[in-house]
């Protein structure tokens, strides 16, 4: 196992992102369509928050149906993305080592971290990315 491997080697670079003006209904559709659990919220190229599928579950019945036109529309219209997303984020740079990322995720019990270089969102790294990296080592 390489000790100094940067997170840029395993992070997702094809970022699916939301804007603060998007709806929670759109967020649910993206979560289900792309089978993901975390979506960065951006203003231009800078990250301003992170929305997790768990955030949606807290306010809705999002997991109760696979129908993209779910019954949650009324609930979703009561909240904005900005009200539901996590705002005070911990981020890492693309040169942060995979080991450092694992330590941050484990210590803080996060499941995803935005990867930011020069205030620009360049990727996202998740616990799944870490597990897949470890599996390739064996």
UniProtKB/TrEMBL annotation:
PANTHER family per UniProt: CBS DOMAIN-CONTAINING PROTEIN, CBS DOMAIN-CONTAINING PROTEIN CBSX3, MITOCHONDRIAL
CBS domain mapped to chain residues: 11-68, 85-138
Pfam families the record matches: CBS
Keyword terms: CBS domain
SUPFAM superfamilies to which the protein is assigned, alphabetical: CBS-domain pair
InterPro entries hit by this protein: CBS_dom (IPR000644), CBS_dom_sf (IPR046342), Diverse_CBS-Domain (IPR051257)
Protein name as it appears in the record: CBS domain-containing protein
Native organism: Flavivirga rizhaonensis
């Amino acid at each position: 196992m390489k000790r100094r491997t940067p997170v840029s080697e395993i992070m997702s670079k094809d970022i699916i992102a939301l804007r603060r003006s998007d709806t929670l209904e759109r967020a649910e559709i993206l979560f289900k369509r792309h089978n993901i659990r975390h979506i960065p919220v951006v203003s231009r190229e800078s990250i301003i928050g992170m929305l997790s599928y768990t955030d949606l579950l807290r306010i809705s019945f999002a997991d109760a149906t696979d129908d993209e036109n779910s019954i949650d529309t009324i609930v979703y219209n009561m909240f904005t993305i900005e009200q539901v997303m996590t705002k005070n984020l911990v981020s890492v740079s693309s040169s942060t080592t995979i080991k450092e990322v694992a330590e941050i995720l484990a210590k803080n019990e996060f499941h995803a971290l935005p990867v930011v270089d020069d205030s620009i969102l360049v990727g996202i790294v998740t616990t799944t990315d870490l597990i897949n990296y470890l599996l390739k080592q064996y």
